């Protein structure tokens, strides 16, 4: 998303901390829950109880590369990945606090385009940017804290899956992994998967819909479908069984798999960064519109550990992403 905001020119060192802040907070979207936004020592929000909160950190060279994504893309992604955590609890995000660290020689226009991306995705997600902080650092680092409300619903946790439940998914999986695969090989096509890697398409509103439908357990699929369903299985003490026949393999994923010698289901089942939602429900009859049933939950057998099976068997390759073991492709 190309963004060309008006604002100061030069580097961040030229603009200074307070000049940058003034530019970043101009024309921020707001929300009725935000009583006091940027400009004071703290934001004030009028939130229902209980309050949901989550924090995500995006670090240059770990979560994004400037030669792969525009500043606007990175700003949009910073919002999307955080709001997805609130969605996964069945809530509605209402406020974001953003910490932005960067080297002084970074162009001020980069920071302003990043902020424009933040604002654009915040408007799409229906969340207000309530405040934050900026400081100097060696690498660009973005920390986002999100606050949300449940609108009278109970939070949906990972530990509620029950034997007999069906497993369903909202959103898409494998697209961002396909984008990362081609970017890592120096290509920029298929364009749709590269764009999926740059900016996840979070199914906003699907988490609350699942909570209203009585979802027993739910999770944000950030590190891979099997890995994240594994967290649900472990927290709930159950076995989750997934069937490959439930998934349609989109043509762009087929193209990437064929070109790279990759199994398309490796992308679908283990690829992260799409930020779909996965949940369990009492039956297929209560699964909301827009959700796809992909499996079921059963009790563990004697001496059987909580696990996720694919077509009745363990998935032998790595099940997902581990931040402390992974490297850029």
Notes on the structure:
- With 329 residues, the protein is α+β, with helices and mostly antiparallel strands.
- It contains 10 helices and 13 strands.
- The protein has helices at residues 12-15, 17-24, 71-88, 108-125, 175-184, 191-198, 206-212, 225-236, 251-260, 264-270, and strands spanning 34-36, 44-45, 51-59, 92-102, 128-136, 141-149, 166-170, 217-221, 239-242, 276-281, 291-298, 307-310, 313-314.
- The strands form 3 sheets. The protein has a 7-stranded mixed sheet, with helices on both faces.
- Helix 3 (71-88) runs parallel beside helix 4.
- The longest helix is centred in the first third of the chain and has 18 residues, at 71-88.
- The radius of gyration is 20 Å and the shape is globular.
- The two termini are 24 Å apart.
- Mean pLDDT is 88; it is low at 321-329.
Features:
13 strands, 23% strand, 329 residues, globular, alpha+beta, 31% helix
Uncertain segments of ≥5 residues (pLDDT<50)?
321-329
In N-to-C order, the SSE pattern is HHEEEHEHEEEHHHEHEHHEEEE
Distance between the termini: 24 Å
Strand residue content: 15-25%
The biggest sheet, with number of strands, parallel, antiparallel or mixed sense and barrel status, is: 7 strands, mixed
Work out the helix count.
10
In total, the number of strands is 13
**Category from helices, strands and their pairing:** alpha+beta
Oligomerization: single chain
**Rg, Cα atoms, Å:** 20 Å
The rough form would be described as globular
Name the average pLDDT.
88
Proportion of residues in helical segments: 25-40%
Strand order of the largest sheet: 8-10-7-11-9-12-13
């Amino acid at each position: 998303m190309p963004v060309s905001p008006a604002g100061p020119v030069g580097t961040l060192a030229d603009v200074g901390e307070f000049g940058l802040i003034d530019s970043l907070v101009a024309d921020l979207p707001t929300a009725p829950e935000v009583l006091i936004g940027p400009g004071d020592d703290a934001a004030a929000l009028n939130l229902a109880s209980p309050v949901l909160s989550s924090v995500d950190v995006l670090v240059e060279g770990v979560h994004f590369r400037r030669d792969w994504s525009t500043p606007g893309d990175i700003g949009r992604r910073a919002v999307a990945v955080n709001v997805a955590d609130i969605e996964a609890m069945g809530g509605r995000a209402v406020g974001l606090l953003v910490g932005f660290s960067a080297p002084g020689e970074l162009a001020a226009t980069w920071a302003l385009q990043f902020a424009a991306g933040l604002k654009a995705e915040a408007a799409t997600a229906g969340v207000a940017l309530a405040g934050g902080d900026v400081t100097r650092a060696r690498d660009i680092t973005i920390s986002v804290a999100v606050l949300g409300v449940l609108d009278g619903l109970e939070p949906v946790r990972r530990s509620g899956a029950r034997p007999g439940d069906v497993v369903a998914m909202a959103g898409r999986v494998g697209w961002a992994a396909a984008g990362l695969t081609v970017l890592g090989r120096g290509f920029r096509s298929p364009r749709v998967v590269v764009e999926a890697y740059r900016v996840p398409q979070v199914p906003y509103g699907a988490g609350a819909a699942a909570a209203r439908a009585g979802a027993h357990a739910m999770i944000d699929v950030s590190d891979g479908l099997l890995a994240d369903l594994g967290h649900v299985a472990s927290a709930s003490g159950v076995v989750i069984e997934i069937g490959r026949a439930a998934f349609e393999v989109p043509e762009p994923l087929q193209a990437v798999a064929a070109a790279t010698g990759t199994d398309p289901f490796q992308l679908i089942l283990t690829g992260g960064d799409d930020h779909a939602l996965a949940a369990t429900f009492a039956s297929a009859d209560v699964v909301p519109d827009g959700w796809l049933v992909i499996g079921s939950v059963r009790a563990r057998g004697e001496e059987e550990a909580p696990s996720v099976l694919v077509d009745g068997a363990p998935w032998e390759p790595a099940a997902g992403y581990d931040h402390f073991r992974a490297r850029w492709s």
